[in-house]
Structures are given as C-alpha cells and as structure tokens.
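To illustrate the input format used throughout this study, we show a single complete record. The first block contains the structure-token representation of the backbone; no residue identities are included at this stage. The design step must infer an amino acid for every position from geometry alone.
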C-alpha cells in the first residue's frame, strides 16, 4: 500500500486498534445480550464518516513547538489554544468538526484542584419534566434554547432532504445541518458543565440513580430516549468534575425511589402521570421528583453506612 507511506505509522496502528475495539465490543454484545436487541455488526465507515486520527505517543510524530503543533507528514500547524496544557502530554488526537479542525491533547498526572469541603450532601433525581430535582426541593430546568434548537434542526434537515443527491446545493445544506447539530451539542454540553460545576461547589457528595443502559435501549419513546442520553452525558461530566474537585458522585440502585414515601418509608404506588406525592400514612405531601431525590439521598447515605 504505497499510499500509506504518506501517513505516520502510529496513526495507522491506531486505526487498527480502533477497529479491534469495535469488534471486541460487538462480540461482547453478542455474548452478554444487548438489552434484548440484536447487536449490529460493525459497518464499513466510508471516508465521509472518519473524522479523527490519533498520534498515540506525544513526541513521536506530534509535538509542540512555540505554541505551534508540529505533525509528522502534515507540517507546522498554528493552533488557537483554549487553555494551557497541564500535566504530561500523552496522546494527540485531531478531529474534524463542522466548523474546522480541533486538537485534543490528553495528559497524565494532571494536578487536581480540590474545592473546600462544605459538609453538605444531596440526592439528585433526573426527570423528563424538569432536568433534575435536588433533595432540598431545588428544581433545575432544561434551558429554553432546546426547543428553539429542535425547530432549527428540523428546518435544516428538511432543506437537506429537498435537495438533489450529489448536488453542490445539497452538500452545502449538509454542512449547515452539521453546524446546527454542533451548536445544539455545545449548548447542551455547556448547560451540563455549568450545572455539574454548581453541584460540585455546593455539595461534597452527590447521590444519583444508576441509569440502566438496557432500559434506555428498550425505550422507544423518542423524547424519553433523548433525555436518557442527556442524563448519561451529564452524569459522566458530574463524575469527572467531582473527581477533579476531590468530591464524590455516587450512583445508587434505582429501586422504589419514586414509590417510597420519604417521610415514613411506606410504599405509595403511583403511575408516571401522577406528579405529586401524597402519603396516606404520614401525610407527607411534596412533588414526586423532590420525594425521589430525598429517597436517593437517604438510600445513598445508608448504603455508605453499611460499607464503612
Ligand atoms: Zn409517609
């Protein structure tokens, strides 16, 4: 393959490593079952679907020189840095997004910056109606921009469908659609980061329900599955932010957290449409999600008590 001579060897090796991972994941899904679904065989990714490549060893093929990125077989590239590098650079990944190329340098031994402990703990219940509810009753709402973004996405998607395949006009529409998706992704990520940051500042330990991936895949209700994906992204950001700040995000098993009364522990059956928790035993009356958040906090604390 003489054309591969123009590519650094580590990039080629990394492509094989990614392919191997894809197959390993596929075989794992075949053996463990995939939430009751048939696992999809890895599909061929054409040149329009391959968006990144990795130099797996910093200093070998990719290095920094005076703020410039020097890439083997590519050259000196000027970079607009979003932040100074911290720690020891390990791998360098370049990826193409809708508005240009990005470089991601992953580093080891990044110094953590612990936040001062506050002595506070809370439980978080994630929901469809409100993004999250805390054990003290605080509700965190989804930003309004989501709705507007959905409309813009729809318009952009329609524009692509209307245009003739293979035409320049369609290619242009595809580019605009990709930009619209990127904007939504960034808005959502921004909201997730800011929310996680607030929680980590205020609480030392944050308990949340463990999301069950199998259930997520089974659910065919679109709005629900999008929200599930959002919480998944949020919880991983929360775990990461907590680790950076020397705090903790703890997942608890999601059993009966919405059905149990947070006041007396009685089980009060209610369907998804019932938004208010009223206990016939002790008279506790509060929002369903608030009740669940209190249960999650208590469950988390009791589970930790058993471990210690
Ligand atoms: Zn009760």
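Output of the design step:
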């Amino acid at each position: 393959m003489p054309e591969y001579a123009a590519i650094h060897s580590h990039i080629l090796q990394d492509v094989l490593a990614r392919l191997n991972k894809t197959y390993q994941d596929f075989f794992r899904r075949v053996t463990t079952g995939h939430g009751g679904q048939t696992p999809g065989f890895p599909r061929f990714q054409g040149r329009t679907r391959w968006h990144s490549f990795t130099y797996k060893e910093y200093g070998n093929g990719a290095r920094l020189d005076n703020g410039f990125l020097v890439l083997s077989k590519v050259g000196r590239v000027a970079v607009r840095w979003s932040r100074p590098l911290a720690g020891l650079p390990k791998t360098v990944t370049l990826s193409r997004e809708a508005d240009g190329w990005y470089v991601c340098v992953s580093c080891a031994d990044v110094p953590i910056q612990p936040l001062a402990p506050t002595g506070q703990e809370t439980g978080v219940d994630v929901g469809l109606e409100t993004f999250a509810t805390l054990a003290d009753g605080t509700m965190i709402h989804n930003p309004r921009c989501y709705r507007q973004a959905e409309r813009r996405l729809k318009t952009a998607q329609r524009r692509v469908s209307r245009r003739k395949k293979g035409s320049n006009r369609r290619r242009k529409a595809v580019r605009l659609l990709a930009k619209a998706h990127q904007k939504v992704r960034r808005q959502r990520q921004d909201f997730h980061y800011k929310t996680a940051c607030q929680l980590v500042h205020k609480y030392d330990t944050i308990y949340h329900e463990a999301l069950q991936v199998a259930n997520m895949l089974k659910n065919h209700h679109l709005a629900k599955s999008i929200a599930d994906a959002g919480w998944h992204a949020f919880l991983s950001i929360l775990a990461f932010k907590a680790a950076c700040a020397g705090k903790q995000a703890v997942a608890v098993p999601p059993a009966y957290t919405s059905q149990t009364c947070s006041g007396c522990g009685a089980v009060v059956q209610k369907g998804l449409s019932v938004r208010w928790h009223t206990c016939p035993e002790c008279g506790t009356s509060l929002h369903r999600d608030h009740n669940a958040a209190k249960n999650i906090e208590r469950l988390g604390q009791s589970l930790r008590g058993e471990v210690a």
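Structural context for interpreting the output: The mean pLDDT is 87. Residues 168-202 form the longest helix (35 residues).
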